[in-house]
Structure formats: structure tokens, C-alpha cells
From TrEMBL:
InterPro entries: AAA+_ATPase, AAA_lid_NorR, CheY-like_superfamily, Homeodomain-like_sf, HTH_Fis, P-loop_NTPase, Sig_transdc_resp-reg_receiver, Sigma_54_int. Member of the two-component regulatory system NtrB/NtrC, which controls expression of the nitrogen-regulated (ntr) genes in response to nitrogen limitation. Phosphorylated NtrC binds directly to DNA and stimulates the formation of open promoter-sigma54-RNA polymerase complexes. This is DNA-binding transcriptional regulator NtrC. GO terms for biological process: regulation of DNA-templated transcription; regulation of nitrogen utilization. It comes from Tepidamorphus gemmatus.
Length: 479
């Protein structure tokens, strides 16, 4: 049975009672208080083996108390709780020396597990060197999905681990990369971003590694590459899934050996950069298609971070709307408020363009409408305007499924030039078609798997297995 003395500080009596019961039940000696002064007195007296404290206390903010505790008792683990579930809260908790940060509400079993781990290995955490720039924090949202991301980012700040950020277009992948840089130990170095999809294939190596004068036709002077520009800082490789195979090999060599050679150069150059990559594509699928190197994937995917689409964190929309309205006001646009009904309508939208689409809509509302309060009707009109027009059949080309697949395969084979794709093409194509087909059937039946199985002509257990194997998100709802 676990042993140890736990000091709990929270101004909410109900929370104190719940924590006391949960920790006492597994064998810990628990003492609770509703103020920071009592907590500090206990710590100063040498009481307790671990502290659990809320951030906001009636007499003192825990972030002001934590440095004193760590100075007096550097080996004492401190678990911070907070209802202020923002990115900055997670970073500040780590900065002040917290062992762990838990956004409220949290799972009690998770807390008990963290307490056990902290008492088994009571090691002080490395502190962060970040400034309190609350107005400039780019990440907004208090949903559980965003809390998981904040906590992961806080753990990564003092490392140089390579990070792979995946997510749909518009989810904020570059914002996460910038946060890792701006609040990490390389913050004083440069942050250099390069979009792999925007560079011509024959210029990618020159863009990344630079070139020497005369290296190729048109190379009139020596040119520095992005690796050299990012020296001592962070290099962000956006849309890495669009990088052609011929450019992936030299990038892999840099990651393996820590050095590169300019185009036309002969002397290897040592590099000191942190790599953060991002993609909106399924790189494992590209690997199966022979379009992305598996060894490069594992070099880049040291710490994977998946950014959820906006439809998976719709509870963040009110915070995001207020944030974007505040930004628009700082840029000189009129101050706006928004009705609750309008926010509810925004939450029901699917947001195929994710946060970027929402930001554009909010800026449009701020710029184009004279009303101080944005109503549901205005939002409805804007969302209706943003819907794509129905496709017009020009008859110029075959729009059947077979025709679409044929055009796709023609483009696919052209990408390999004189070579053939890797074996297994038949099953890869079937898998690509299967996922959107099942997804469309589930959407049409509002997530009813019995009706979807009947529509597809599949056994219900077979459909469930395919949903699980393909990792298809099932969203249920009535008509």
C-alpha cells in the first residue's frame, strides 16, 4: 500500500474533500488547507512529501509560492491544478518547477498515478526561461484535446527532440512550432520556416543547404540555405509530405550525421538546429505508396503531436472568436460582441478550413458589419455564402468514380517516371477507396452502424472491425 504525506491546498472545500478521500483511500496521509499561508507554513516546518495545489488561492497565487518552495525544498514534487486551462498556465507551471500540471476537471485515478510516480522518483524538474507574454500567446482553447497538447509542449520546451506535427490544413501547425521555439531553450536563436510544397523540385536542395557560386546555371553568387539561416535555432519543415523522394535522402543524411554540404560544395558543414516538421498527409500511407522514406519518417517522428480539427474541439470556438475579435480591434477594426445563439450556430458548423476558416470569418464580421453585436442571422448568412457552389457537369471529362480513379492512377504512375510503384498497389488502392466510402455511409446514416452496414451490404461485425482498423471517427446525431 502506498505511503507518504500529501499536502493539498485548494480554496474549494468540495475539491479538498474529494482529493482527501481519493488519496486517503489508497493509503496516503493527507492534510488539506484552503490558503497558501498554511501550505507554506507546513512546507517550512518540513511537513509533507508532496504538494498538490491550485493556482488561484485567496491569499496568494501559487505561481508566486512555488519558487519559494523549490528553493527551500528542491526535491519536493509539486502538482499544480488549475481551471485556467491555457497554454501559458501549463508553461508557467513547468517554469516554476512543478512536477506535473493538471487542468480541471481531471481524472482522480490519473492524479493518484502521478502522485505514486512522483513519490517513487522525487526529482526536481528543469525550469524554463520564458517571459509572461499572455497577450501574444498564439494557442487558444480550454478543451481537453488542447490541454493534452499544452502539457506535451510544456514537457518539450527544454529539449531538442525532433517533433512531427500532424493535422488538417488550418489547425495551427506553424503556431505550435513557433510556440515550441519561442518558449524553449532556443528562443534567442532564429526561427526559420520553409514550405516544402511551395518550392520547385529542382531547387529544394539549394533552398535547404545553399549553393556555391557557379554550382548550376544562374548561380551567380553563393547562397545561404535554410539550415545555415536557422543555425542555433529552429528549422520548421512545413508540408514535409510534399517533399520529393530525391530530396529526402540528403535531409536524412543531415539528421543522421549532423552535417550537410552545399550544392556545388565539397566541405561538410556541421549544423546545430532543432527540426520541427509538419504535415497534413498520412505519411504512413505515403510510405506504403513508395513516396516517402520510412527511415526519414522515423527520424522526424521522434515526438508526434496531432492537432485536432476544429470540429473535434468545438467547445473552444467561443474563446477563439473572442480572441480573433480582440486581435481585429487591435488592428483598428471596430469592437464587436456576439450573441450566444450565434456562437451556438458556429459550434454546429463543420469547419473544413478549421481555425484558419474561423479566423477569416471573424475578421470579415468585424470589418463588414456595422452592428456592434453579431447576431445568429448574420452568422447564418455568412456561413451560407461560404458554402462551395455545386459542381457543374461540363461534359468535358468523365466524372464517374472509375474516371476519377483512372485520372488518379495516371498521375500516380507518372510520379515514378521510368520506374514502377512498389508491390501491393491493388490492396493500397482498395484501402484508399474503402475509408471514404465507409465514412460517407456513416455520415449518411448519422453514425448508425446498423443502417450503414445494411447500406454497404456488409455484416455489422465486419463494419465495426473496418471502422476500428481504419481509425474512422464515428459522429452520431439525429436528423
Amino acid at each position: 500500500m502506498p505511503t507518504g504525506s500529501i499536502l493539498v491546498a485548494d480554496d474549494d472545500a468540495a475539491i479538498r474533500t474529494v482529493l482527501n478521500q481519493a488519496l486517503s483511500r489508497v493509503g496516503y496521509d493527507v492534510r488539506v488547507t484552503g490558503n497558501a499561508a498554511t501550505l507554506w507554513r507546513w512546507v517550512a516546518q518540513g511537513d509533507g512529501d508532496l504538494v498538490i495545489t491550485d493556482v488561484v488561492m485567496p491569499d496568494e497565487n501559487a505561481f508566486d509560492l512555488l519558487p519559494r518552495i523549490k528553493k527551500l525544498r528542491p526535491d519536493m514534487p509539486i502538482i499544480v491544478m488549475s481551471a485556467q486551462n491555457t497554454f501559458l498556465t501549463a508553461v508557467k507551471a513547468s517554469e516554476r518547477g512543478a512536477y506535473e500540471y493538471l487542468p480541471k476537471p481531471f481524472d482522480l485515478n490519473e492524479l493518484v498515478t502521478i502522485v505514486g510516480r512522483a513519490l517513487a522518483e522525487p526529482k526536481p524538474k528543469a525550469s524554463l526561461t520564458v517571459e509572461e507574454e499572455a497577450d501574444n500567446i498564439p494557442l487558444v482553447g480550454r478543451s481537453s484535446a488542447m490541454q493534452d497538447i499544452y502539457r506535451m509542449l510544456a514537457r518539450l520546451m527544454q529539449t531538442d527532440l525532433t517533433v512531427m506535427i500532424s493535422g488538417e490544413s488550418g489547425t495551427g501547425k506553424e503556431l505550435v512550432a513557433r510556440a515550441l521555439h519561442d518558449y524553449g531553450k532556443r528562443s534567442k536563436g532564429p526561427f526559420v520556416a520553409i514550405n516544402m510544397a511551395a518550392i520547385p523540385r529542382d531547387l529544394i536542395e539549394s533552398e535547404l543547404f545553399g549553393h556555391e557560386k557557379g554550382a548550376f546555371t544562374g548561380a551567380q553568387t553563393r547562397n545561404t540555405g535554410r539550415f545555415e539561416q536557422a543555425e542555433g535555432g529552429t528549422l520548421f519543415l512545413d508540408e514535409i509530405g510534399d517533399m520529393p523522394m530525391e530530396a529526402q535522402t540528403p535531409l536524412l543524411r543531415v539528421l543522421q550525421q549532423g552535417e550537410y554540404t552545399t550544392v556545388g560544395g565539397r566541405t561538410p558543414i556541421r549544423t546545430n538546429v532543432r527540426i520541427i516538421a509538419a504535415t497534413n498527409k498520412d505519411l504512413r500511407l505515403l510510405i506504403n505508396q513508395g513516396l516517402f522514406r520510412e527511415d526519414l519518417f522515423y527520424r522526424l517522428n521522434v515526438v508526434p503531436i496531432r492537432l485536432p480539427p476544429l470540429r473535434e474541439r468545438s467547445e473552444d470556438i467561443p474563446d477563439l472568436v473572442r480572441h480573433f475579435f480582440a486581435q481585429a480591434e487591435k488592428e483598428g477594426l471596430p469592437r464587436k460582441q456576439i450573441e450566444q445563439a450565434a456562437l451556438d450556430r458556429l459550434r454546429r458548423h463543420r469547419w473544413p478550413g478549421n481555425v484558419r476558416e474561423l479566423e477569416n470569418l471573424v475578421r470579415r464580421l468585424a470589418a463588414l458589419y456595422p452592428q456592434e453585436v453579431i447576431s445568429e442571422g448574420i452568422v447564418e448568412a455568412e456561413l451560407s455564402e461560404s458554402l462551395p457552389p455545386p459542381a457543374i457537369d461540363s461534359g468535358a471529362q468523365d466524372d464517374s468514380l472509375g474516371g476519377s480513379v483512372e485520372r488518379h492512377l495516371t498521375t500516380y504512375f507518372k510520379a515514378f517516371g521510368d520506374r514502377l510503384p512498389p508491390p501491393g498497389l491493388y490492396h493500397r488502392i482498395l484501402r484508399e477507396i474503402e475509408e471514404p466510402l465507409i465514412g460517407a455511409a456513416l455520415a449518411a446514416t448519422r453514425g448508425n452502424q446498423i443502417r450503414a452496414a445494411e447500406l454497404l451490404g456488409l455484416n455489422r461485425n465486419t463494419l465495426r472491425k473496418k471502422i476500428r482498423d481504419l481509425d474512422i471517427q464515428v459522429i452520431r446525431g439525429g436528423r
